[in-house]
Amino acid sequence: MTSEEYANSSVDYRLSRDSSSQLGYKVSVKSLNSWFGAKQALKDINFSVKENTITSLIGPSGCGKTTLIRCLNRMNEMTTSATVKGSVYLDDVDIYDTRVDPVTIKRRIGMVFQKPNPFPTMSIYDNVAAGLKLNGVKDKKLIGEIVEDSLKSAVLWDEVKDELGKPGSSLSGGQQQRLCIARALAMQPEVLLMDEPTSALDPIASSKIEGLINDLKKDLTIIIITHNMQQAARVSDYTAFMYLGEMIEYGPTKQIFENPTKELTERYISGKFG
Amino acid sequence: MLTRLLDLGLNRISNIIMDMANLSVRSVDTAIDSYEKGTGSEQQIFEWSEQLRVLQDEVAELAMELIARYQPVATDLRFIRSCMEISYGFSRFGRYAYDIMDIIGTMGSISHCDKSSVLEMASTAREMIHMSIKALQTQDKNAAEKLYVMDDTVDALYRKYLREIITPTNKKEMKEMAKDPRCYLSTLLILRYLERIADHACYIGDSVHYIATGTSSPRR
Fold this sequence. Notes:
The complex is a heterodimer. Chain A is α/β, with parallel strands linked by helices.
């Protein structure tokens, strides 16, 4: 793949689409229901995420947060018993439409997981370049540029630029997580899903990741799961509270944490249950 | 259910606020009784006023600690913020009580003065203080509206007296004013302090409304 082909391939999926959502929403979820076998995990989820914002999903364990974000980029399909009904729109196109290529969706909607998972046998450089190479990019100069840009965007470049050949696993926990973020950014996603990205990190590393997340939102739309309510309050523009598979309340973070409308939300965020 | 650590702090701040409420009521009552009957001690009210100021600082310190340690949200956060405002209100009640005593002390004997205007407004102001404290205890979000209606009465009384002073209607009134201006000065100044007490009672009602609803009181 040439550099020009790669640059254009980020919009290469098979349906014609309007690249800007009519109401400024990057992701819209409509009547989303999900099951694992007979057990319903998500019940009639409806919400929309504005472009270039950070939305946090909070709720007690088992409420469906991870199931929901895995539905947002069709990662749920990797679980054999998982079924989905409803729609998830990315820029007005339903990603569950049969004509949509799920691989392209996963490129446009990147994901970072709780436990940093750099490819253990690969160098720092190769970790970031892995996705590009798998997608057929062969131009070494282009790969080098993208790797550098991605590591800079992940605020890791200055710390690793002289040791790009070292294994990814040689980095600290916080650095490994930023490496994983760089790896996701190399694919030039439009949306980034983050499943408890700092829960395995110390407070200083967590603080750096939070600062990074805030910087990234100027280019991306970010949805983050967190068990740390204070983190949700610090980092996000919008917050969604989930409970037993339902979205109980969704709104601006300031409103959710200062004056939630639902009593269940108030009780959860005040630490009265959960 | 296990008590939250935050609840221990919230209970402590509530207790300080109620102590301030009781002390401010005592201060204002004593000051007005002193005006009416010539009893009471300026020194005592000064000490109460100082005590209220110290308690206000204690509320602020405790509020900061609770916010720093426990990152409260929603109703808890609104309550803590409002406690800082409410404690200021009670501290002002104490200060105005002291100011009233100061006027009485400065003017000397004013037992011959017509006290009806002051006593009329004082009755309303005292009722407003009690209403604001009850609203706080019962979390009555509708009290603010009632307090503002009473505040209108207080403001009207104050403006009426002010007009009477600055535009005496006849020579007899002007002669009386010139004879002993202390009566009019003391009345005017005390009415002013009572008018401010009424305002702060309204602000306490606003804070209660905010704690309960998360929104500003409609009148405000």
